[in-house]
Design a protein that fits this description.
single chain, Clc chloride channel, 2 domains, globular
Amino acid sequence: MEPENTKLKAPDEEESHMIYDMAKWLLLAIVIGTVAGGLSSVFLVCLEKSILWAGKHPYYFLFLPVAMFLTAVIDRYVVPSADVHTTDKVIEYLHRAKDIPPFSILKAFFLPILTIAFGGSAGKEAPAADISAAAGSLIGRLFRMNIEDKRKLIICGISGGFSAIFGTPIGGALFGIEVLYVGSLFYDILLPAFVSGIVGYQVSAALGMKYSYFPINFVPVFSRSFFLEVIFAGIFFGLCSRLFIRTKELVSEYNAKLKIWEPLKALCGGALVATVGFFSLDYLGLGLETIQKCVQGGNVSWYMFPIKMLLTCVTLVTGGSGGIVTPIFFVGATSGNLFAQVFGLDPATFSAIGMVSVLAGTTNVPIAASVIAVELFGGKVASYAALTCIISYVVTGRKSVYPSQELTEKKHSSMAGEMKGSFRKISSLFAD
């Protein structure tokens, strides 16, 4: 009789465990999403006020070398172990199963403001995601959770922070999951990541954060010629993604060869970026005005996207702090604008498609990028954006602007044999 009772109780126990686990992660995801939305909102307000204050001075960008010098000094000498203030570092810590140092929250908050406010070419998304990820790691440590649960909390933090910054709750949630491993999605993280992303967005919106959405009204009549133009656009955006990644690699290689004090490198990098300010302010800081102009149908100069690429890489590699997704949006929008001008197409549509396609190629997140396209630009552009995102993702190959990403599945047959054992190793990290 005893074995029979055990068999009868087993399904009930399994169901109870499933309900408990779901309830636990719903609660934790809501907490992380709330923290992510709150911290991201505070960061955005501080960043906006800093940009407005610095912008009152006509030559504010001349302070950028000093700002980047201070950023490098603080990063290197003030709690040097708290080095997680970039998305790539968060990914690295996740793969190495390490707790994110709590002081990383302060560095991820203040250092990007110092860089961006004075004209450094960097983005606002990474600080918010990194702050939220560090908060998730801290909560996991306080409650003495195991390493798998801490990883989930960190991923929820990335999803919540990204969603709160761009107002893309579903795309933000998917970005937090998809950006870690090329070729794999871990479905046991989907529910908490989605909840965290939605809550992070709702909290930040409730706190007064304003988001920009640009519904695309252009709906071309489907034809063979337009379909081919969309395919060629995807290939072009993939090549732009490869160029961005290679530019970052070359700047990193050159920076490593310079055997001088790191803060002095930051000073020189800041001076190089600041020099461009004498010719145009469009390339400095976030560059949101240029992005908006492109997706609203305005035309821009063909050389804007390669210059922005170079300045972003110089800023982030030599010692500046901040994200890379906002510059990627700039590069994608301006390259898409160029493509539209060359082929006589609608600039708003291809600027929008370019934004998400270069994101898909440079960061290996085709699913998240496709969903972000729908959230930012509406459903009319969805099918074209999804196609160009996938093509750009494939064309880019194995590289990424995040070197810590791990490849778990080949993109195409020519990459066979490179991932033996990787998927098994990564899957075991998330095993219950």
